[in-house]
Known about the structure:
There is one protein chain. By secondary structure, the chain is α/β, with parallel strands linked by helices. The chain has eleven helices and six strands. Strands 1, 2, 3, 4, 5 and 6 form a six-stranded mixed sheet that branches. A hairpin with a 4-residue loop joins strand 2 and strand 3 (148-160). The longest helix has 24 residues, at 267-290.
Amino acid sequence: MTTNLDTLATALYVKADDLLKASPQLAPWRPKVGMAPQLSDAELVTLSVMQALLGFPGEARWLRYARAHLRHLFPYLPQQSGYNKRLRKSVGLVRNVLRALATDTAGWTDDIWVVDSTPVECGRSRETVQRSDLAGWAEYGYCASHSRFFWGLRLHLVCTLGGLPIAFALAGAKANEQQTLLEIFAVEPALLAERPGQTLIGDKNYFGAEFEGQLAAAGVHHLRPARKGEAERAGAELFKPLRQVIESINQTLKGQLDLERHGGGTVTGVTVRALQRLLALTAAIWHNAKADAPVLRSLTAYDH
Length: 304
């Protein structure tokens, strides 16, 4: 199997189409009576992944490009408003395709995870903050890694050392990282129940006796750097290189997949655009694994 955009798109379409044939209830609801959409749900998912991989944050410009260059893959392409509406209604489908790809990758069974959160900016002007439909979810926060304040959300991501997303959540910029992580695992208890002894590596913000006690009770071996005034903790020699791993994964999402240029103005809009980027990363890792590529998280073969 070769690693190029057309082969990835074809493989992803087949995977999504097979998933929908096996579980048709995963498709977005639509009336039983009426015309079937000319762009299938599997094609929609594939089209959205290609948009993220090729670096088109804006949907109108993306569809102009697709009409000029991708007709061999998509005979029918909707207008921008139709594409936007279809995509927002497909949040559940995108999430299910993402999980299907992740569980079909050998990295899904890795026994070491890393966790971190990264800013997802949603606006810069005061007028935007006051008018935005995201007000009440998005809020002001501070990113210590880049020494900047921002208004928006944080993506809390649990992933493997290879960058494969395992679990994630979007929360307000000031949301407690420990509590958010516990809630991620509470929503999907099987993630930890099926992996006794899983190692989870986080930064200094993932601390607290009660928090660590709950992780230990769930069978998680939690590693983090010592905070100021604490004795040295086990695994200290691993933290510096592994910290670069999670930073690199976040940079892939933000630098190559334009996570912070999502353009969403509603809760559903931001959610599906974040999922779109996570699905693109997962699809690339999945396809690279199937093709025995030397670097699973490399997107170079798919960005042109």
